[in-house]
Amino acid sequence: MINIFRCLLHFVIVVILTVITQIGGVAYLLSLVFKKYIARVGKLKFGYGFLLFAIFYGLLWGGSIFIAPQFGRVALPCFSDQTDKIAVQSPLYCLLNRHYVTPKLLELGNALASSIDARFPRTQTQALDANFPFFDKFPLLPHLSHDDGRKLDIAFYYRNDKNEYVVGKTKSPIGYWGFEQPTDSRSQLCSNNDDNWNLRWDMDWFQFLNKQHYQLDRERTSVALQWLANQGQSYKVSKIFVEPYLAKRLGVSNKIIRFQGCRAARHDDHIHIQIAK
């Protein structure tokens, strides 16, 4: 009975690690194999299992950077001091292996960052969730469509309580869930939605982590949204998701700026972009 429970536990861990990182399940299985081998040839000390997992995960993570181009993906930069280049907002996305895009989407991201920095010097454009390095149609939960390297979430730009732009900072520590709010309840298309299955979480429990004194930098965010909707089409931008009330507030309108629907996550905390093949 104990062995069955242990096997079931290992299976669950493999599934969870695979779902959130794509490579974590493989790293965990390798650590189990080598852990058994070490236990046979010598005395196994506490913590060896986690150390082995960390080693294998690190090797697979590093190897993914070199193998991903064979699957049509490249890694977004995890750290960058160049404001004219896009960078990942938090090391968490890199650690979880969720920072891969197609070369064309990386080109788009860098062009956006360069354009915004030229208009507003020292402005850092930041990426949130992108995609895993391998295989199309492998889901990037909880997203519904980040499964082919052609989708990317872009963080908003923010100002502090002194009305100064904050370089490389977001209202939320992870870029998501620092929601804007409609001033008119009628502007929220899904406020009366009775659908029992949707991803429109308000994340009330998370809000204490947000920098509440940070306010949306409307000018930078509006210019970025306009650039994506216009110049972005030369980079094959085909869809942009942002809440309709927010697009209206920012004064941006275009046929490729769309409402993602009431079953998908809220898009008044980030901009979702996707490019055509």
Automatic annotation (TrEMBL):
InterPro entries: Zn_M74/Hedgehog-like (IPR009045). The keyword Membrane applies. Keywords: Membrane, Transmembrane, Transmembrane helix. The chain crosses the membrane at residues 12-34, 46-68. The keyword Membrane applies. This is Uncharacterized protein. It comes from Kiloniella spongiae.
